[in-house]
Automatic annotation (TrEMBL):
The gene is Crat_1. This is CACP acetyltransferase. GO terms for biological process: carnitine metabolic process, CoA-linked. It comes from the Eukaryota. Keywords: Transferase. It comes from Cinclus mexicanus (American dipper).
Length: 250
């Protein structure tokens, strides 16, 4: 029951939401995954692969975030996980080198994955920097004090302009995860991890499970193309899967 005072605002919000939905383009695809080589580190391999794919699509890395639940230390709250830039960049450049040997590529992949897992454990234990910085900023605003200089630095603005916002979930039903972009020239990437038993338990045909990837971007931005980034992601998944075939990161 909506009264006459709030009804116009509800209609305005509906039109705004419809306009936002109309401005989002989605590209989805399925992938077989990395095989047994990735083992329990599949989520970390995916995040590293997304960095490499963005590098291939745009020629550089970007500020990236993935929300993680802090239920172990602060139930009901989340923090942001950033991928490790230097090892991901080293791997991206090496994958573009036709003379790079598989042994070197595997070493670089392992280093990037281990750095990613180390960052994840730091965030999950409540030692990530993002929420601490957020609270510092809020405390200054509440006290009506000048913002600490870090928040006025152009580097901080660039570091928090998340052109890539990702989400990974293991789904029993093999759902498609839609994550919207956070900035006008950004992407949202949702990756659903599907185990063989989750695809269709009643289907007698063999199924290896895999990944379901959904890439989103704003259609009004000429510098982003979800199909282009999606193609880069699929290509990097193929390359890393071939690299890990018969090998292991453990």
């Amino acid at each position: 029951s909506v009264g006459p005072e709030i009804a116009p605002e509800v209609e305005r919000a509906k039109r705004h939401l419809d306009s936002l939905a109309a401005d989002v383009e989605v590209h989805c695809f399925e992938h077989d995954g990395f095989g047994e080589g990735a083992g329990p580190r599949c989520e970390a391999v995916v995040q590293v692969a997304l960095q490499v794919a963005f590098y291939r699509a745009h020629g550089s890395l970007c500020a990236t975030c993935e929300p993680l639940s802090l239920r172990q230390v602060l139930p009901g709250c989340t923090d942001l996980l950033r991928p490790p830039g230097p090892p991901c960049l080293a791997l991206a450049r090496a994958l573009d080198d036709p003379d790079a040997q598989p042994e070197l590529l595997l070493v670089l992949l392992r280093e990037a994955v281990e750095a990613q897992e180390s960052h994840a454990q730091e965030v999950l234990s409540g030692r990530g920097p993002e929420r601490h910085l957020q609270r510092l900023r809020e405390a200054a605003l509440e006290a009506r004090e000048p913002l600490p200089e870090i928040f006025l630095d152009p580097g901080y603005a660039q570091a928090t302009h998340f052109r890539l916002c990702t989400l990974q979930v293991r789904s029993r039903e093999g759902s498609w995860l839609l994550r919207g972009p956070l900035v006008p020239d950004g992407y949202g990437v949702g990756v659903g991890h599907v185990s063989p038993a989750q695809v269709n338990p009643k289907d007698p045909s063999p199924n290896r499970g895999g990944l379901r990837v959904a890439v989103t971007a704003f259609t009004c931005c000429s510098s982003t193309d979800p199909a282009h980034l999606g193609g880069a992601i699929s290509g990097v998944f193929d390359r890393l899967g071939a690299l890990l075939r018969g090998r292991s990161l453990t």
